[in-house]
Amino acid sequence: ESATKGKVVLATVKGDVHDIGKNLVEIILSNNGYRVVNLGIKVPPEQLIAACAEHQPDALGLSGLLVKSAGQMAITAGDLREAGVEAPLLVGGAALSDKFTRTRIAPEYGGTVCYAKDAMAGLALLNALMNPATRAEVAARHAPQAAAAAAVAAPGAAPAQAQSRSRKVRADLPIPAPDSLERRQRDVPQLAEIWSYINPLMLYRHHLGFKDNFEQALAARDSRALELQELVEGLKREAAEFFQVRAVWQFFPVEPEGNALHFFAPGAAPGATPLHTFRFERQRREDGLCLADYVLPPKDGRRDHVVLMAVTAGAGVRERAEAAKQAGRYVESHGLQVLALETAEAAAEWLHRRIREDWGFPDPPAMTMKERFTSRYRGKRYAFGYPACPNLNDQAGLWKLLRPETIGIELTDGMMMEPEASTSALVFHHPDCAYFSVSDEAAGRTVARDF
């Protein structure tokens, strides 16, 4: 307390509930000589401004996961500037990039804004900013790009979105019939089975920092891999006492119309009023893709189908993780949040496999988990807020049709899911499905995983 390197205020921006990355930053900074004030999630600019006035921090850190959060960072940066806040600003999150930071956030702030691709990069940047010998050089490297900002502020007229189906997507396929159109809701007690669907690349490399191929290292009895596996197995034993995996899903009859997709009640007659219509964006290029392309037109009075699904594994996780962090059990705190997040992703992969079976095209018996992790099956699932359907407000339509609140997932004012370890998706069966971005920028980066 008497010999800190500096004081940092951290916050997840307004509307965003994701805090695993931010909490990891807090742990790393706190254990490297910084005093950290963590304001939590969904922090509006006025709360951040008040915290700056109270704590007089040496730097600020903003976190956010989705494309919408990247835009909120730019808004927050402008509000901070108007309030007279001048401390260096560090930003991070999956949808961010250095380009977006320099051209969209930094010009709004007017001062030093640094993009940190991960927690350790954030520590290195903060150490350099707090060092009088390197502060000026770091600030100069991260000054706003005025010319680029002007170009962004006055873009040319965007081409109009086409409405016609992309020729890349076949329309002459038979319409598969699902086994049932009933809404299904399940508590999934088989944690061991769900955990078999966890992607080791995401768990061990992306979240837990193992730099080499974990599976190869484990097979070679690498001591680091063995130690990390034992850590995860211990977390699973603790998680098994309170993790709750819950799922809800339903097949809906649908009809495409240009870039729109009409959802109907089961058994709705031709010409019936849709329950809801999603209007998707199309790539602004010749023969650009749109999610509506992946639905087959009605044939012989039969409609195609799309599945809406939601899963969660997050009940009670934030409270457990916070208690562990306050007790100084940092690895347990971070590990429980990570395990919950990847359990939700694994549950989505498990449920998608079951949906394919119900649709009449089960995975081949020889299909491996690695093939599933790279989507080598028929169809794809897409989540709102990601590149192919970036309009996060469409979550409201999914909630209207599927009612995921019955399995404990709440939709925030910012259209994000609580608890954080939850996923929702639209599932298409079309064999031509591909992951794509409707924007060439997508807030600076195309996010590879759409679920």
List keywords for this structure.
single chain, 451 residues, alpha/beta, seven-stranded antiparallel sheet, five-stranded parallel sheet, 15 helices, 14 strands, disordered C terminus
Q: Could you characterize the architecture of this molecule?
A:
- This protein is of the alpha/beta class and 451 residues long.
- It is 37% helix and 16% strand.
- The chain contains 15 helices and 14 strands.
- The strands form three sheets. Strands 6, 7, 8, 9, 10, 11 and 14 form a seven-stranded antiparallel β-sheet that branches.
- A hairpin with a 2-residue loop joins strand 7 (245-257) and strand 8 (260-263).
- It is globular, with a radius of gyration of 23 Å.
- The two termini are 42 Å apart.
What is the share of helical residues?
Answer: 25-40%
For the termini, the CA-CA separation is 42 Å
Can you tell me the residue ranges where pLDDT is under 50 for at least 5 consecutive residues? Answer: 147-155, 441-451
**How many DSSP E strands?**
14
Topology:
Blueprint: E1 6-12, H1 20-30, E2 34-38, H2 45-55, E3 59-63, H3 67-82, E4 89-92, H4 98-109, E5 113-115, H5 119-130, H6 135-141, H7 146-153, E6 184-188, H8 191-195, H9 200-207, H10 214-219, H11 223-239, E7 245-257, E8 260-263, E9 276-279, E10 304-312, H12 317-326, H13 330-359, H14 369-373, E11 380-382, H15 395-402, E12 410-411, E13 417-418, E14 422-428
How would you concisely characterize the structure shown here?
The protein has 451 residues and is α/β, with parallel strands linked by helices. The chain has helices at residues 20-30, 45-55, 67-82, 98-109, 119-130, 135-141, 146-153, 191-195, 200-207, 214-219, 223-239, 317-326, 330-359, 369-373, 395-402, and strands spanning 6-12, 34-38, 59-63, 89-92, 113-115, 184-188, 245-257, 260-263, 276-279, 304-312, 380-382, 410-411, 417-418, 422-428. The strands form 3 sheets. Strands 6, 7, 8, 9, 10, 11 and 14 form a 7-stranded antiparallel sheet that branches.
